[in-house]
Amino acid sequence: MAPSVLIVEDNLSLSQLYESYLIPTGINTDVASTGEQALAFLADNKPQLILLDIMLPDMNGMDILASLDQNDRPQVIVLTGHASKELAVQAIRLGATDFLEKPIDADRFRITINNALKLKNLTEKVSNYQQKYENGRFYDLIGSSSLMQSVYQIINNAAQSKATVFITGESGTGKELCASAVHQASPRNKSPFIALNCAAIPKDLIESEIFGHVKGAFTGATNNREGLAGQANGGTLFLDEICEMQLNLQSKLLRFIQTGTFQKVGSEKLEKVDVRFVCATNRDPLVEVNEGRFREDLFYRLHVIPIELPSLSARDGDVIEIADFLFKKLSKEEGKCYKTMSYHTKQKLLQYPWPGNVRQLENIIRNTVVLNDADIIEPQMLPPLPRADKSNLSNSSQSYDNNQMSNDFINRTSEIKSPENSASTNQSFSQPADSLVTSDEYYHVSNSQNIKPLWLIEKSYIEQAIALCDNNIPKAAASLDVSPSTIYRKMKTWQEQNTVC
Protein backbone atom coordinates (compact mmCIF):
# COMPACT_ATOMS: atom_id res chain seq x y z
CA MET A 1 0.00 0.00 0.00
CA ALA A 2 1.37 3.40 -1.06
CA PRO A 3 2.18 5.82 1.78
CA SER A 4 0.08 8.96 2.20
CA VAL A 5 1.29 12.53 2.64
CA LEU A 6 -0.69 15.58 3.78
CA ILE A 7 0.54 18.85 2.25
CA VAL A 8 -0.41 21.84 4.43
CA GLU A 9 0.28 24.87 2.20
CA ASP A 10 -1.81 28.01 1.65
CA ASN A 11 -0.17 28.80 -1.71
CA LEU A 12 -2.09 26.79 -4.34
CA SER A 13 0.68 26.88 -6.96
CA LEU A 14 3.26 25.61 -4.43
CA SER A 15 1.01 22.77 -3.20
CA GLN A 16 0.45 21.69 -6.83
CA LEU A 17 4.20 21.86 -7.43
CA TYR A 18 4.89 19.63 -4.41
CA GLU A 19 2.29 17.15 -5.66
CA SER A 20 3.97 17.06 -9.08
CA TYR A 21 7.31 16.32 -7.41
CA LEU A 22 5.77 13.25 -5.75
CA ILE A 23 3.92 11.85 -8.79
CA PRO A 24 6.92 9.67 -9.89
CA THR A 25 7.15 8.12 -6.41
CA GLY A 26 3.56 6.81 -6.37
CA ILE A 27 2.87 8.48 -3.03
CA ASN A 28 -0.76 9.45 -2.31
CA THR A 29 -1.20 13.15 -1.49
CA ASP A 30 -3.89 15.29 0.13
CA VAL A 31 -3.83 19.09 0.41
CA ALA A 32 -5.02 21.45 3.16
CA SER A 33 -4.73 25.22 2.61
CA THR A 34 -5.49 26.29 6.19
CA GLY A 35 -4.67 25.08 9.68
CA GLU A 36 -8.35 24.35 10.35
CA GLN A 37 -8.60 22.15 7.26
CA ALA A 38 -5.42 20.31 8.29
CA LEU A 39 -6.73 19.60 11.82
CA ALA A 40 -10.09 18.42 10.45
CA PHE A 41 -8.30 16.06 8.03
CA LEU A 42 -6.05 14.68 10.80
CA ALA A 43 -9.04 14.00 13.03
CA ASP A 44 -10.31 11.39 10.53
CA ASN A 45 -7.11 10.25 8.79
CA LYS A 46 -3.61 9.08 9.68
CA PRO A 47 -1.10 10.03 6.98
CA GLN A 48 2.45 8.73 7.30
CA LEU A 49 3.90 12.22 6.76
CA ILE A 50 2.89 15.89 6.91
CA LEU A 51 4.52 18.67 4.85
CA LEU A 52 3.76 21.61 7.11
CA ASP A 53 4.06 25.27 6.13
CA ILE A 54 4.67 27.57 9.08
CA MET A 55 2.89 30.71 7.83
CA LEU A 56 -0.79 29.79 7.38
CA PRO A 57 -3.63 32.33 7.04
CA ASP A 58 -5.49 31.24 10.21
CA MET A 59 -2.76 29.93 12.54
CA ASN A 60 0.93 29.21 12.95
CA GLY A 61 2.12 25.83 11.72
CA MET A 62 3.99 25.34 14.99
CA ASP A 63 0.64 25.19 16.80
CA ILE A 64 -0.42 22.29 14.59
CA LEU A 65 2.90 20.56 15.24
CA ALA A 66 2.51 20.97 19.00
CA SER A 67 -1.04 19.55 18.92
CA LEU A 68 -0.03 16.20 17.37
CA ASP A 69 -0.21 13.07 19.53
CA GLN A 70 3.27 12.31 20.82
CA ASN A 71 2.71 8.53 20.92
CA ASP A 72 1.22 7.97 17.47
CA ARG A 73 2.21 10.85 15.29
CA PRO A 74 3.16 11.03 11.59
CA GLN A 75 6.54 12.26 10.47
CA VAL A 76 6.55 16.04 9.99
CA ILE A 77 8.71 18.09 7.59
CA VAL A 78 8.46 21.82 8.25
CA LEU A 79 8.46 24.22 5.27
CA THR A 80 9.12 27.94 5.49
CA GLY A 81 10.30 30.85 3.39
CA HIS A 82 11.67 32.64 6.46
CA ALA A 83 14.16 30.20 7.93
CA SER A 84 16.11 30.91 11.06
CA LYS A 85 18.22 28.81 13.40
CA GLU A 86 15.82 29.45 16.29
CA LEU A 87 12.82 28.34 14.21
CA ALA A 88 14.55 25.13 13.14
CA VAL A 89 15.50 24.28 16.73
CA GLN A 90 11.94 24.94 17.90
CA ALA A 91 10.50 22.69 15.16
CA ILE A 92 12.83 19.81 16.01
CA ARG A 93 12.03 20.15 19.74
CA LEU A 94 8.32 19.89 18.91
CA GLY A 95 8.96 16.62 17.04
CA ALA A 96 9.63 17.61 13.42
CA THR A 97 11.72 15.14 11.43
CA ASP A 98 13.32 17.67 9.10
CA PHE A 99 13.27 21.32 8.09
CA LEU A 100 13.22 22.63 4.48
CA GLU A 101 13.63 26.22 3.31
CA LYS A 102 11.72 27.53 0.29
CA PRO A 103 12.31 27.42 -2.64
CA ILE A 104 12.91 23.64 -2.60
CA ASP A 105 14.86 21.66 -5.18
CA ALA A 106 12.83 18.72 -6.57
CA ASP A 107 15.51 16.06 -5.97
CA ARG A 108 16.21 17.22 -2.42
CA PHE A 109 12.48 17.36 -1.80
CA ARG A 110 11.98 13.72 -2.87
CA ILE A 111 15.04 12.48 -0.94
CA THR A 112 13.86 14.18 2.25
CA ILE A 113 10.36 12.73 1.85
CA ASN A 114 11.78 9.23 1.20
CA ASN A 115 14.06 9.36 4.26
CA ALA A 116 11.22 10.49 6.49
CA LEU A 117 8.96 7.67 5.29
CA LYS A 118 11.74 5.11 5.90
CA LEU A 119 12.13 6.46 9.43
CA LYS A 120 8.36 6.18 9.97
CA ASN A 121 8.38 2.57 8.78
CA LEU A 122 11.28 1.69 11.08
CA THR A 123 9.59 3.39 14.03
CA GLU A 124 6.41 1.39 13.44
CA LYS A 125 8.37 -1.88 13.31
CA VAL A 126 10.11 -1.12 16.61
CA SER A 127 6.79 -0.11 18.20
CA ASN A 128 5.08 -3.30 16.99
CA TYR A 129 7.91 -5.46 18.36
CA GLN A 130 7.76 -3.72 21.73
CA GLN A 131 4.00 -4.31 21.87
CA LYS A 132 4.49 -8.01 21.07
CA TYR A 133 7.29 -8.45 23.60
CA GLU A 134 6.16 -7.32 27.03
CA ASN A 135 7.21 -8.50 30.49
CA GLY A 136 9.34 -11.33 29.14
CA ARG A 137 6.53 -12.64 26.92
CA PHE A 138 6.38 -12.89 23.15
CA TYR A 139 2.85 -14.08 22.40
CA ASP A 140 2.69 -17.44 24.23
CA LEU A 141 6.48 -17.81 24.54
CA ILE A 142 8.06 -16.76 27.84
CA GLY A 143 11.66 -15.88 28.62
CA SER A 144 14.06 -12.94 28.60
CA SER A 145 17.29 -14.86 27.96
CA SER A 146 19.52 -13.80 25.06
CA LEU A 147 18.83 -17.11 23.29
CA MET A 148 15.08 -16.49 23.34
CA GLN A 149 15.56 -12.86 22.31
CA SER A 150 17.25 -14.17 19.16
CA VAL A 151 14.32 -16.55 18.57
CA TYR A 152 11.83 -13.69 18.97
CA GLN A 153 13.73 -11.57 16.48
CA ILE A 154 13.77 -14.36 13.88
CA ILE A 155 10.02 -14.91 14.35
CA ASN A 156 9.32 -11.20 14.07
CA ASN A 157 11.34 -10.88 10.85
CA ALA A 158 10.04 -14.12 9.31
CA ALA A 159 6.39 -13.49 10.16
CA GLN A 160 5.84 -10.92 7.40
CA SER A 161 6.99 -13.40 4.74
CA LYS A 162 5.32 -16.50 3.34
CA ALA A 163 8.61 -18.43 3.56
CA THR A 164 8.46 -21.83 5.24
CA VAL A 165 9.72 -21.99 8.83
CA PHE A 166 11.49 -25.15 10.08
CA ILE A 167 11.57 -25.45 13.89
CA THR A 168 13.91 -27.87 15.65
CA GLY A 169 14.50 -28.54 19.31
CA GLU A 170 14.24 -31.13 22.05
CA SER A 171 10.87 -32.50 23.09
CA GLY A 172 9.05 -30.11 25.40
CA THR A 173 10.80 -26.89 24.33
CA GLY A 174 7.61 -25.30 22.94
CA LYS A 175 7.80 -25.88 19.19
CA GLU A 176 4.04 -25.56 18.70
CA LEU A 177 3.98 -22.32 20.70
CA CYS A 178 6.78 -21.05 18.45
CA ALA A 179 4.79 -21.98 15.35
CA SER A 180 1.74 -20.24 16.78
CA ALA A 181 3.83 -17.11 17.43
CA VAL A 182 4.93 -17.10 13.77
CA HIS A 183 1.27 -17.19 12.78
CA GLN A 184 0.13 -14.55 15.30
CA ALA A 185 2.89 -12.13 14.28
CA SER A 186 2.04 -12.50 10.58
CA PRO A 187 -0.59 -10.74 8.43
CA ARG A 188 -2.40 -14.13 8.39
CA ASN A 189 -3.29 -13.92 12.08
CA LYS A 190 -7.00 -13.41 11.33
CA SER A 191 -7.09 -16.69 9.40
CA PRO A 192 -6.88 -20.24 10.84
CA PHE A 193 -3.83 -21.78 12.47
CA ILE A 194 -4.14 -25.53 11.83
CA ALA A 195 -1.80 -27.97 13.59
CA LEU A 196 -1.19 -31.64 12.75
CA ASN A 197 1.01 -34.05 14.69
CA CYS A 198 2.29 -36.39 11.99
CA ALA A 199 3.29 -39.00 14.60
CA ALA A 200 -0.18 -39.16 16.16
CA ILE A 201 -2.17 -40.06 13.02
CA PRO A 202 -2.22 -43.67 11.67
CA LYS A 203 -0.11 -43.93 8.54
CA ASP A 204 -3.04 -45.05 6.39
CA LEU A 205 -5.15 -42.02 7.42
CA ILE A 206 -2.66 -39.17 7.38
CA GLU A 207 -3.11 -38.39 3.67
CA SER A 208 -6.85 -38.06 4.16
CA GLU A 209 -6.23 -35.97 7.28
CA ILE A 210 -4.09 -33.48 5.34
CA PHE A 211 -5.83 -33.36 1.96
CA GLY A 212 -9.34 -34.62 2.79
CA HIS A 213 -11.34 -37.23 0.89
CA VAL A 214 -14.49 -37.68 -1.16
CA LYS A 215 -17.37 -39.96 -0.32
CA GLY A 216 -16.58 -43.59 -1.11
CA ALA A 217 -12.83 -43.05 -1.48
CA PHE A 218 -12.20 -45.89 0.99
CA THR A 219 -14.05 -48.05 3.48
CA GLY A 220 -15.63 -45.77 6.05
CA ALA A 221 -15.56 -42.64 3.87
CA THR A 222 -19.31 -42.03 4.12
CA ASN A 223 -19.12 -38.29 3.45
CA ASN A 224 -16.93 -35.75 1.72
CA ARG A 225 -14.36 -34.37 4.15
CA GLU A 226 -12.35 -31.16 4.06
CA GLY A 227 -8.70 -31.82 4.92
CA LEU A 228 -6.47 -29.64 7.06
CA ALA A 229 -4.92 -28.10 3.93
CA GLY A 230 -8.32 -26.74 2.92
CA GLN A 231 -9.15 -25.65 6.46
CA ALA A 232 -5.88 -23.67 6.63
CA ASN A 233 -6.60 -21.71 3.43
CA GLY A 234 -5.41 -18.14 3.94
CA GLY A 235 -3.70 -19.09 7.20
CA THR A 236 -0.92 -21.33 8.51
CA LEU A 237 -0.54 -25.13 8.40
CA PHE A 238 1.74 -26.47 11.15
CA LEU A 239 3.15 -29.97 10.59
CA ASP A 240 4.64 -31.24 13.85
CA GLU A 241 6.99 -34.25 13.90
CA ILE A 242 7.41 -33.90 10.12
CA CYS A 243 10.15 -36.56 10.07
CA GLU A 244 7.57 -39.20 11.03
CA MET A 245 5.79 -38.80 7.68
CA GLN A 246 5.95 -41.71 5.20
CA LEU A 247 8.15 -41.29 2.14
CA ASN A 248 5.30 -41.74 -0.38
CA LEU A 249 3.32 -38.96 1.32
CA GLN A 250 6.41 -36.75 1.47
CA SER A 251 6.44 -36.61 -2.34
CA LYS A 252 2.79 -35.45 -2.40
CA LEU A 253 3.53 -32.87 0.29
CA LEU A 254 6.48 -31.59 -1.76
CA ARG A 255 4.25 -31.07 -4.78
CA PHE A 256 1.64 -29.35 -2.60
CA ILE A 257 4.26 -26.94 -1.23
CA GLN A 258 5.66 -26.21 -4.70
CA THR A 259 2.35 -25.62 -6.49
CA GLY A 260 -0.16 -24.87 -3.75
CA THR A 261 -2.45 -27.48 -5.32
CA PHE A 262 -3.58 -30.90 -4.11
CA GLN A 263 -6.12 -33.64 -4.73
CA LYS A 264 -8.45 -35.08 -2.14
CA VAL A 265 -8.20 -38.83 -1.68
CA GLY A 266 -10.45 -40.43 -4.30
CA SER A 267 -10.81 -37.24 -6.35
CA GLU A 268 -9.28 -36.23 -9.68
CA LYS A 269 -10.02 -32.54 -9.18
CA LEU A 270 -7.12 -30.22 -8.36
CA GLU A 271 -7.78 -27.73 -5.57
CA LYS A 272 -5.68 -24.65 -4.89
CA VAL A 273 -5.16 -22.96 -1.52
CA ASP A 274 -3.00 -20.20 -0.08
CA VAL A 275 -1.19 -21.71 2.90
CA ARG A 276 1.90 -20.75 4.89
CA PHE A 277 3.85 -23.84 6.05
CA VAL A 278 5.54 -24.20 9.43
CA CYS A 279 6.99 -27.58 10.43
CA ALA A 280 8.86 -28.98 13.42
CA THR A 281 10.78 -32.03 14.59
CA ASN A 282 12.74 -33.14 17.65
CA ARG A 283 15.01 -35.26 15.44
CA ASP A 284 18.09 -34.15 13.56
CA PRO A 285 16.63 -33.68 10.05
CA LEU A 286 20.00 -34.09 8.32
CA VAL A 287 20.47 -37.47 10.02
CA GLU A 288 17.02 -38.47 8.75
CA VAL A 289 17.99 -37.38 5.23
CA ASN A 290 21.29 -39.30 5.38
CA GLU A 291 19.49 -42.42 6.68
CA GLY A 292 16.99 -42.24 3.80
CA ARG A 293 13.94 -41.63 5.97
CA PHE A 294 13.34 -38.04 4.84
CA ARG A 295 13.47 -36.73 1.28
CA GLU A 296 16.37 -34.39 0.65
CA ASP A 297 14.40 -32.22 -1.80
CA LEU A 298 11.58 -31.85 0.73
CA PHE A 299 14.07 -30.92 3.46
CA TYR A 300 15.55 -28.10 1.39
CA ARG A 301 12.09 -26.93 0.36
CA LEU A 302 11.00 -26.71 4.01
CA HIS A 303 14.28 -25.58 5.55
CA VAL A 304 14.03 -21.95 4.42
CA ILE A 305 13.96 -20.14 7.76
CA PRO A 306 15.34 -22.42 10.50
CA ILE A 307 14.55 -21.74 14.16
CA GLU A 308 16.32 -23.83 16.79
CA LEU A 309 14.63 -23.68 20.18
CA PRO A 310 17.14 -23.96 23.05
CA SER A 311 16.69 -26.43 25.88
CA LEU A 312 15.35 -24.99 29.12
CA SER A 313 18.65 -25.63 30.92
CA ALA A 314 20.46 -23.39 28.40
CA ARG A 315 18.11 -20.42 28.86
CA ASP A 316 19.75 -18.68 31.83
CA GLY A 317 17.05 -17.61 34.29
CA ASP A 318 14.03 -18.25 32.06
CA VAL A 319 12.98 -21.17 34.25
CA ILE A 320 12.01 -18.72 37.02
CA GLU A 321 9.95 -16.53 34.68
CA ILE A 322 8.18 -19.56 33.23
CA ALA A 323 7.62 -21.13 36.66
CA ASP A 324 6.14 -17.91 38.03
CA PHE A 325 3.78 -17.62 35.06
CA LEU A 326 2.72 -21.26 35.38
CA PHE A 327 2.20 -21.01 39.15
CA LYS A 328 -0.11 -18.02 38.59
CA LYS A 329 -1.98 -19.68 35.72
CA LEU A 330 -2.43 -23.10 37.34
CA SER A 331 -3.23 -21.65 40.77
CA LYS A 332 -6.05 -19.68 39.19
CA GLU A 333 -7.34 -22.80 37.43
CA GLU A 334 -7.22 -24.84 40.66
CA GLY A 335 -8.65 -22.09 42.86
CA LYS A 336 -5.43 -21.74 44.88
CA CYS A 337 -3.75 -18.60 46.24
CA TYR A 338 -0.21 -18.11 44.96
CA LYS A 339 2.03 -15.13 45.71
CA THR A 340 5.64 -16.09 45.04
CA MET A 341 8.40 -18.69 45.28
CA SER A 342 10.93 -18.62 48.08
CA TYR A 343 14.60 -17.97 47.34
CA HIS A 344 15.53 -21.62 47.99
CA THR A 345 12.76 -22.83 45.67
CA LYS A 346 14.10 -20.64 42.88
CA GLN A 347 17.61 -21.96 43.46
CA LYS A 348 16.38 -25.54 43.29
CA LEU A 349 14.60 -24.87 40.00
CA LEU A 350 17.68 -23.12 38.58
CA GLN A 351 20.05 -25.94 39.53
CA TYR A 352 17.98 -28.79 38.02
CA PRO A 353 18.84 -29.63 34.35
CA TRP A 354 15.21 -30.15 33.19
CA PRO A 355 15.65 -33.00 30.68
CA GLY A 356 11.94 -32.77 29.83
CA ASN A 357 12.20 -29.00 29.31
CA VAL A 358 9.15 -26.75 29.74
CA ARG A 359 6.70 -29.67 29.56
CA GLN A 360 8.38 -31.32 32.55
CA LEU A 361 8.44 -28.01 34.45
CA GLU A 362 4.71 -27.55 33.87
CA ASN A 363 3.96 -31.04 35.20
CA ILE A 364 6.08 -30.41 38.31
CA ILE A 365 4.29 -27.11 38.98
CA ARG A 366 0.83 -28.59 38.45
CA ASN A 367 1.69 -31.33 40.96
CA THR A 368 2.85 -28.69 43.46
CA VAL A 369 -0.24 -26.53 43.02
CA VAL A 370 -2.69 -29.42 43.35
CA LEU A 371 -1.08 -30.91 46.49
CA ASN A 372 -0.32 -27.69 48.39
CA ASP A 373 -2.37 -24.70 49.57
CA ALA A 374 0.44 -22.35 50.61
CA ASP A 375 0.78 -18.96 48.92
CA ILE A 376 4.60 -19.09 49.14
CA ILE A 377 6.17 -22.12 47.46
CA GLU A 378 8.95 -23.77 49.49
CA PRO A 379 11.39 -26.41 48.14
CA GLN A 380 9.85 -29.28 50.14
CA MET A 381 6.53 -28.70 48.38
CA LEU A 382 8.01 -29.68 45.02
CA PRO A 383 7.70 -33.37 44.10
CA PRO A 384 10.93 -35.40 43.85
CA LEU A 385 12.79 -34.36 40.70
CA PRO A 386 14.04 -37.36 38.68
CA ARG A 387 17.81 -37.64 38.47
CA ALA A 388 18.96 -36.58 35.02
CA ASP A 389 22.13 -35.69 33.20
CA LYS A 390 21.55 -35.35 29.48
CA SER A 391 25.01 -34.09 28.66
CA ASN A 392 26.72 -37.33 29.62
CA LEU A 393 24.68 -39.44 27.22
CA SER A 394 24.32 -36.98 24.38
CA ASN A 395 27.91 -35.77 24.12
CA SER A 396 29.68 -39.13 24.04
CA SER A 397 28.98 -42.15 21.88
CA GLN A 398 30.88 -44.80 23.81
CA SER A 399 32.55 -43.32 26.93
CA TYR A 400 30.86 -42.89 30.30
CA ASP A 401 31.68 -41.30 33.62
CA ASN A 402 30.63 -43.90 36.19
CA ASN A 403 29.66 -41.13 38.60
CA GLN A 404 26.69 -40.42 36.33
CA MET A 405 25.62 -44.00 35.51
CA SER A 406 22.10 -44.94 36.50
CA ASN A 407 21.56 -47.60 39.13
CA ASP A 408 19.66 -49.70 36.59
CA PHE A 409 22.71 -49.86 34.38
CA ILE A 410 24.95 -50.73 37.34
CA ASN A 411 22.64 -53.55 38.34
CA ARG A 412 22.91 -55.02 34.85
CA THR A 413 26.68 -55.34 35.32
CA SER A 414 26.42 -57.06 38.73
CA GLU A 415 26.91 -60.46 37.12
CA ILE A 416 30.38 -59.46 35.88
CA LYS A 417 33.18 -61.15 37.84
CA SER A 418 36.00 -59.18 39.40
CA PRO A 419 39.38 -59.95 37.73
CA GLU A 420 41.11 -59.78 41.13
CA ASN A 421 38.77 -62.22 42.85
CA SER A 422 37.56 -64.55 40.08
CA ALA A 423 40.41 -67.04 40.44
CA SER A 424 40.13 -67.47 44.22
CA THR A 425 36.54 -66.73 45.19
CA ASN A 426 34.69 -66.87 41.86
CA GLN A 427 32.17 -64.39 43.33
CA SER A 428 30.31 -61.75 41.39
CA PHE A 429 30.62 -58.06 42.10
CA SER A 430 28.82 -54.84 41.36
CA GLN A 431 30.85 -51.79 40.33
CA PRO A 432 29.96 -48.96 42.75
CA ALA A 433 28.31 -45.95 41.09
CA ASP A 434 30.78 -43.52 42.68
CA SER A 435 33.97 -45.30 41.62
CA LEU A 436 36.11 -44.83 38.54
CA VAL A 437 37.76 -47.56 36.50
CA THR A 438 41.45 -46.91 35.89
CA SER A 439 43.00 -47.45 32.49
CA ASP A 440 44.89 -50.56 33.69
CA GLU A 441 41.77 -52.06 35.22
CA TYR A 442 39.83 -51.35 32.04
CA TYR A 443 42.53 -53.14 30.02
CA HIS A 444 42.20 -56.27 32.19
CA VAL A 445 38.40 -56.13 32.10
CA SER A 446 38.14 -55.72 28.35
CA ASN A 447 40.51 -58.65 27.78
CA SER A 448 38.81 -61.00 30.25
CA GLN A 449 37.07 -63.96 28.66
CA ASN A 450 33.91 -63.42 30.75
CA ILE A 451 33.60 -59.67 30.24
CA LYS A 452 31.63 -58.00 27.44
CA PRO A 453 32.75 -54.63 26.03
CA LEU A 454 30.87 -51.71 27.54
CA TRP A 455 29.37 -50.69 24.20
CA LEU A 456 27.69 -54.11 23.87
CA ILE A 457 26.07 -53.75 27.31
CA GLU A 458 24.94 -50.24 26.38
CA LYS A 459 23.59 -51.56 23.06
CA SER A 460 21.60 -54.27 24.84
CA TYR A 461 20.21 -51.77 27.34
CA ILE A 462 19.09 -49.27 24.65
CA GLU A 463 17.61 -52.02 22.47
CA GLN A 464 15.54 -53.24 25.43
CA ALA A 465 14.30 -49.68 25.99
CA ILE A 466 13.30 -49.41 22.32
CA ALA A 467 11.47 -52.75 22.49
CA LEU A 468 9.59 -51.64 25.63
CA CYS A 469 8.50 -48.51 23.74
CA ASP A 470 7.09 -50.55 20.82
CA ASN A 471 10.07 -49.67 18.60
CA ASN A 472 9.29 -45.96 18.89
CA ILE A 473 12.78 -44.46 19.03
CA PRO A 474 11.73 -40.89 20.00
CA LYS A 475 9.70 -42.34 22.88
CA ALA A 476 12.61 -44.52 23.98
CA ALA A 477 14.96 -41.54 23.75
CA ALA A 478 12.66 -39.53 26.02
CA SER A 479 12.61 -42.38 28.55
CA LEU A 480 16.42 -42.54 28.49
CA ASP A 481 16.76 -38.73 28.73
CA VAL A 482 18.68 -38.46 25.47
CA SER A 483 17.84 -36.96 22.10
CA PRO A 484 16.68 -39.32 19.30
CA SER A 485 19.70 -38.27 17.22
CA THR A 486 21.96 -39.72 19.95
CA ILE A 487 20.34 -43.15 19.58
CA TYR A 488 20.54 -43.02 15.78
CA ARG A 489 24.24 -42.11 16.02
CA LYS A 490 24.88 -45.00 18.40
CA MET A 491 23.02 -47.43 16.11
CA LYS A 492 25.28 -46.37 13.26
CA THR A 493 28.32 -46.91 15.51
CA TRP A 494 27.09 -50.42 16.44
CA GLN A 495 26.84 -51.31 12.75
CA GLU A 496 30.44 -50.20 12.26
CA GLN A 497 31.54 -52.24 15.30
CA ASN A 498 29.85 -55.35 13.94
CA THR A 499 31.53 -54.82 10.58
CA VAL A 500 34.93 -54.63 12.29
CA CYS A 501 34.20 -57.76 14.35
The CATH homologous superfamily of the largest domain corresponds to P-loop containing nucleotide triphosphate hydrolases
Which bin fits the share of residues in helices? 40-55%
Mass-distribution shape: extended
CATH class of the largest domain: Alpha Beta
Main β-sheet, in a few words? 5 strands, parallel
Strand percentage: 5-15%
Determine Rg (CA atoms, Å).
32 Å
Structural class: alpha/beta
Q: Which stretches are poorly predicted, pLDDT < 50 over at least 5 residues?
A: 390-448
What's the structural domain tally?
4
Number of strands: 19
Going by CATH, the architecture of the largest domain would be 3-Layer(aba) Sandwich
Please give the order of strands in the largest beta sheet.
2-1-3-4-5
Give the termini separation. Answer: 69 Å
Give the helix tally: 21
CATH topology of the largest domain: Rossmann fold
Average of per-residue pLDDT values? 82
Organism: Pseudoalteromonas denitrificans DSM 6059
Pfam family, one: HTH_8
Protein name: Two-component system, repressor protein LuxO
Keywords: ATP-binding, DNA-binding, Nucleotide-binding, Phosphoprotein, Transcription, Transcription regulation
